[in-house]
What does this fold into?
Amino acid sequence: MKNPAAEVQSKLESLRGLMALHHLSALELKQTNNLAWVTAGVPTYINEATDTSPLTILITPEKAYALTTSIEAPRLQDEGRLESLGFEMVVEKWHSAGAKAAELIDDRPYADDLSAPMAGAISALRTTLMPEEIARLREGAKLAAAAMNQAVRGVRPGDSEYQLAARLAAAARERGGLPIVNLIASDERIFKYRHPLPTAKQVEKYAMLVLCMRWYGLVISVTRLIHFGKLPDEIAAKMAACARVDAKLILSTKPGRTLGELFEVAKAAYAAEGYPEAIDEHHQGGSVGYAPREVVAKPGTPTLIADNQAFAWNPSIRGVKSEDTILVTDSGPEVLTEIAGWPLIPVTVDEGQIARPAILEA
It folds into this structure.
């Protein structure tokens, strides 16, 4: 990380601009994804199952305070180095947390990141990535792809879905990542469920592994499938169709277009492939950053696509799915979670050519 303090100061200035726009003199950040964003990736959470953490960032026109308890302060000072990033530490006893924030806010015009319109405005700031964030995203994507590759190539018939999930989580953890979404399905469960939590079911011939990995706050998404023995023609045909839908989405992800337009791209692509129902059976993905999906593409979504934004499209047809994390650049989309040596489906569509992941045959 070249200069995290400069990155943090730039983000604080952006937030102060929002505050001025909304006539605020105090803004409190409580959400884990916002805290990761504003601190350049410092892990502030303890309970991974919650959206908030034991740290609060309070921003005024003059200062940025990092409020926490005596439990968390040593780690956040020593390892998070919050003071070197420009935050003034405010430490409270664990049993009286919150009093200092109320004292500092006093009677200032105030908002937090849990309420509208600030929640949406801050999400919009998070979505366009700074050069330092893009560098971290590329590195995290390589690690997520490597974790997926390790886990999926280790699948064997007779393994339980729990075992697959454990290996995928371990592979992410070994690389410093946090597997915030870890979905596993095998055989008929792939055809039945779009969000399959792992079970004790054993793999017979077919498995799907889905990972959303948080790394320095940024979230990278990737899915891969493996089949033992010759791939049935029906599944191969569905995967080819899904790859074409994915290609249309990726190559259509261009600055100036809206997410609503990309929904229509997916809808038309499914219909052309003979699966018009697929558009209603699962969302197609959208922009990513410090959340698994910052904005999901829906009919009429007005959100504009811009350079230096990341996306994860996840088209699926019952029994197959295609998903990678991409970056929008001035030279076109860059696929960040490619896996070296993975079998690919070359796709040519009106928008151009791209290769999408095939199902690994073992």
Remarks:
- Residues 131-361 form a domain with the Creatine Amidinohydrolase fold (CATH 3.90.230.10).
- The longest helix spans residues 131-153.
